[in-house]
Specification:
The protein is mostly helical. The protein has helices spanning 3-31, 39-69, 75-88, 91-100, 108-119, 123-135, 149-166, 175-191, 197-213, 217-230, 237-247. Helix 2 (39-69) runs antiparallel to helix 4, helix 2 packs across helix 5 and helix 7 packs parallel to helix 9 (197-213). It is elongated, with a radius of gyration of 24 Å. Residues 14-35 have low confidence and may be disordered.
């Protein structure tokens, strides 16, 4: 167990100790009148009780880690710290249990771990958790202006794509980043998320630019047209018309 986990475990143990005798007395008094519960219901309730106690512990840990991150001025140092705590402090394991037991409450631990996964560009895990974040309408940390996790991820992924294109990459360099765009597009459409048209247009526009760089002209044109239909000012209308002319395809935008 890491030092952070040890410290927060001690804090939680002290909290539990203060109420242990009360809980025991209450259970003994109630046991004679309580009827047996369905085993599966009891197991689910037990799992949720445990996950709430775990939340108390990991919330202490995440607040400690957030304070520690403020000590770093270098971005790479911050990223390295996030990588270490995600590997060693059990946050991802906690989130997995949170999902399994069907818990649903405003979760500061889940929110910040998700943000860190985005910062570290762990897109597979980000996109795995994104439906949960949106479905539960988890509050974003107050430092962020947006209210929707889909918008947050689109903005961050767009910036990564734009930074990559600025480096004039080879077409093979684009492959690792294009898949997250397709998954995110599918999630937006499937769940009908209420994402601002400007932001949604950015998603399709960048997907088009990346496919264009990969010489997938048909896919690029499709995304350019979609972006323009969503937001006429998405900034890809001219390139869409030029590409359509090159491919001898008629488009209406």
């Amino acid at each position: 167990m890491s030092l952070v986990k040890k410290n927060i475990a001690k804090a939680l143990a002290a909290k539990v100790g203060q109420t242990a005798s009360i809980s025991t007395a209450t259970e003994n008094t109630a046991s004679s009148s309580v009827q047996p519960l369905n085993a599966s219901t009891t197991n689910v309730d037990h799992a949720r009780d445990k996950i709430m106690k775990d939340f108390d512990m990991y919330k202490i840990g995440i607040e400690s880690d957030l304070a520690q991150l403020k000590q770093f001025s270098d971005l790479e140092q911050k990223h390295q710290y996030k990588r270490e705590v995600l590997a060693n402090n059990g946050y991802l394991e906690y989130i997995e249990e949170y999902q399994k037991c069907g818990a649903n409450h405003p979760n500061l631990v889940l929110a910040w771990v998700f943000v860190w996964l985005v910062d570290l560009q762990r897109w597979n895990k980000v996109l795995e958790l994104l439906p949960l974040m949106a479905e539960q309408q988890q509050p974003l940390p107050t430092k962020f202006n947006t209210k929707h996790w889909g918008t947050f991820v689109i903005d961050q992924l767009y910036d990564v794509g734009a930074a990559l294109l600025e480096k004039s990459p080879k077409h093979t360099d684009v492959f690792p980043i294009i898949r997250p765009f397709y998954v995110l597009i599918e999630l937006c459409e499937l769940n009908k998320w209420d994402v601002n048209d400007i932001v949604k247009g950015k998603l399709y526009a960048m997907a088009g630019k990346l496919e264009h760089k990969r010489f997938n002209f048909g896919s690029a044109l499709h995304h350019y047209v979609s972006a323009t239909q969503i937001n006429d000012k998405a900034g890809v209308k001219k390139v869409a018309k030029d590409l359509a002319k090159q491919l001898n395809i008629e488009i209406e935008i």
